[in-house]
Amino acid sequence: MATGGLLHFTNPLSSVVNPNNTYKKHQILHNHRGSFCKNNNLFSAQNCKRRRKVRVIVCKASGTQQSRRGGGVDADIDVGQDRLSKVPISNIRNFCIIAHIDHGKSTLADKLLQATGTVQKREMKEQFLDNMDLERERGITIKLQAARMRYFFEDKAYCLNLIDTPGHVDFSYEVSRSLAACEGALLVVDASQGVQAQTLANVYLALENNLEIIPVLNKIDLPGADPDRIAREVEEIIGLDCSNAIRCSAKEGIGITEILNSIVEKIPPPQDTAENPLRALIFDSYYDPYRGVIAYFRVIDGRIKRGDRIYFMASGKDYYADEIGVLSPNQLQVDELYAGEVGYLSASIRSVADARVGDTVTNYVRKAEKSLPGYEKATPMVFCGLFPVDADQFPELRDALDKLQLNDAALRFEPESSSAMGFGFRCGFLGLLHMEIVQERLEREYNLNLITTAPSVVYRVKCVNGDIVDCSNPSVLPEPGKRKSIEEPIVKIEMLTPKDYIGSLMELTQDRRGEFKEMKYITENRASLVYELPLAEMVGDFFDQLKSRSKGYASMEYSFIGYRESDLIKLDVQINGEKVEPLATIVHKDKAYSIGRALTQKLKELIPRQMFKVPIQACIGVKVIASETLSAIRKDVTAKCYGGDITRKKKLLKKQAEGKKRMKAVGKVDVPQEAFMAVLKLEKEVL
To answer: Which among 378, 128, 151, 114 is positioned nearest to 263, based on CA atoms?
Structure first.
């Protein structure tokens, strides 16, 4: 391993190798057997005067003796450690991998890291870049991950910056941020499943960013793979030329060299603007409890050096860059980064608001005139309330949301209070999976116990006086006399399905108030269905039903198209004549009765019986549409009557009824926390 290389002697506790602290080949190498190596000759440890324990990391020198012509993978495994060496800007390639969920992006990224020697075989594990436990458990990518690789092609060293992206529609904002930091993209299509909904969506995002797209047909080793048919499908549906599409199997390692060669040949290098004033775009960040905010950035113009005084153009704050480096895929420190390179920055930033995603970093002394355009703000589609089970955890929840928003720029939140659950936050998400992931991350990473309310959407209310009110919480909906109309968000949904399931999917969509727009056959066995659907009908179990009815073969993609007036009403729940605001919902008039009936029946089971009769009612305004009665706990006052006239019993029962009446007038019903939780689960099922 040491042949033709340089030896780095480092402190055992150090995690980063300083490339300047190098000893020549003739220095002593201590191996685990207690022998020493000097000029490749072994001699006894007893003859050595100095027995200092050191950890040795061997990095290949740039002048390796192996032939690198043709970009062979074997040669690159030998030079994979030499990733910090600088290359000309013309030899930098920035690219990302885009695909539908479960088409093999993360597996392909693993093979590229392994083939270029970036990760050694002994350190390799599946989904190497997916470093969250949640990602490994679910088998999905949630966060974009960057990695720097070194590859030799035709005797030249190239620096390849890879960004692995999520595939689920709920994380499309992560994909859009990745694309803005790249010049090219690998479009991975499963050779057995073909083009699916998110494949199309990601291609359109890449085309909007003017990226060079390289089509890759993955999983050709599967028995059901038909790469010729899938290549025709890609050409017909997307319009990409697939005559030279790369056919590979990431799992078996087939076609990996061809992919690396294509990246070098087809993807254009970044523009050479290293002499301009520094402008770097922050595309991701996270909070480290010891080092503060760590920002991932792509240098667009100029260069940044360790120790530079930097300025964040959006927040107006300045710091000293204590540490800069590259992600390969672990953090490795460097002294300088220039235009076209991707890296990370640590500047002891304590406030999470000072270095947001989309901000532009420039030099404090030589400031850039204009900031970079950044990113469009993500529009939340689904809202829910997050409340701590223990009210004392409210400050911890606020800090946790601040830190999580740094890492997940699509998350939105604002304070909210509830008579039932106390103080919490109203949070906005891109979809139901996004909501579920955020809740799990808060509970796992920040040790919080949370209650979530039923997911809802933002309604637009037009008032009589001409005002327009955005309402995501039923408790702030204007009174019926003050509102003119209620509009709900509408999404355009495209479903790709085998022809056998067209009927059941049409039935599902029409049951959810969907409006049919278009149906076309993209191949002889697969069809595309386009509907316009209220978003409120989709935030429940729509996706689960879609997968269930199509046996897992159908896929969907949706986009927000605007607001439309609809016959919506506020459904209140009254317990003992008092409205319970946390249980109020906004529903379509046609579904009000069934939802009201389900809510009252569930509450009757959950609320403990009182000393007086408790009516539970679902109301639209003052009109009761569904009602259940919780009978009183009664003492048997007639037990002492063992005979005599019936009037004696009537007298005792009348006296008891008067007492119950007085008790009902002053009595209050406390709805237990478990009842709220159960009703919230019920709302998630029936809405």
So the answer is: 151
